[in-house]
Specification:
CATH topology: Glutamine Phosphoribosylpyrophosphate, subunit 1, domain 1
Number of domains: 1
Largest sheet: 8 strands, mixed
CATH architecture: 4-Layer Sandwich
Radius of gyration: 23 Å
Strand order of the largest sheet: 6-5-4-8-7-3-13-14
Order of helices and strands: HEEEHHEEHEHHEEEEHHHEEEEE
Distance between the termini: 74 Å
Number of helices: 9
CATH class: Alpha Beta
Amino acid sequence: MTTRRDFLRATAGAGAGAAFGIVPTVKFEGAPAVHIRRVTPVAVASANGREAVAKAMEVLQGGGDTLDAVVQGVNIVERDPNDTSVGYGGLPNLDGVVQLDSSLMHGPTRGAGAVASLEGVKTPSLVARDVMRYTDHVLLVGPGAQEFAKSMGYPIEDLLTEESRRRWVEWRARLSDRDDFLIPEGSMRGGSGFRPESSYGDGLLDSHDGVRPQGTINCNVVNADGDISGVTTTSGLAWKIPGRVGDSPIIGAGLYVDNDVGAAGSTGRGEAVIKTVGGHSVVELMRSGMHPEDACLEALRRVVTYTVEPRLRDELGRPNFGVNYYAVNKKGEYAGAAIFAGSRFAVSVDGDTRVEDSAYLFERD
């Protein structure tokens, strides 16, 4: 026998549950059964993250945590000496020193950790995770970040590979024709091995002034329960002023995660992303109901609006640099978007790992 009070209590619970994506089935005999709406797991990353999203999905399918999934994914790229935009083998700063940045966020616990200008550790994302787990801080920088890494057992290594050193030497030789540095034989434009601009494509190493590559990997995931995590890691702008920090280790800029909404991260010109709080902007636009693609494009329009310096604009008044956003929401919808056509992003979903074309604001000339 069901009383009016039992009925009202049951229907009120159903309404509240529906608001949070929970569909209850009311049974008047015994405890009510609650069915949670499942999500198709998704991993999305910058185009250099195809292996990363495949690994992230493998971890998720094995029951692993979302943060472990994204970190293990980007560790593949961080340890790859052939990727000169991230981790070991990253292009160095003005003084020939590799300085790495990374940030991460764990949606379920609202945790965050980051390191910047970290020298000597191939996997800054792991150090950022330790900052989150073992300290009351969010961001450690420079020598302090390295000392912390040493205290956590990370070996300090030389991260400058011969390829990165060669490219730094060639860049330094072109700084001036009035100093004592000579251009190495065979490395002139069109000569063996010299690449004055990025030839990697897919938006991995966009150039903001024609000759200085920059690159990053961002990876975000959502699991079947709707839990979300994200990570961004980079060696930053090549030949940068020592100590320069871009958007990648800044929570809300190069990465932002809200477990109630979604995650977003970026690659490209970090200064432009910082000034428009890019990652946070994308997530807040998704909170308002925008699809990830629309949110990424709107955040890119803000970058265009904020770019007023003549030195950073082309003859049409558009930015002369690249910015890319990558996003996934709590429903499992995802997207990648860029200022200019031609960029791509990696995704793993429904058992398929692939690279897709990014949405964009402008065609290139």
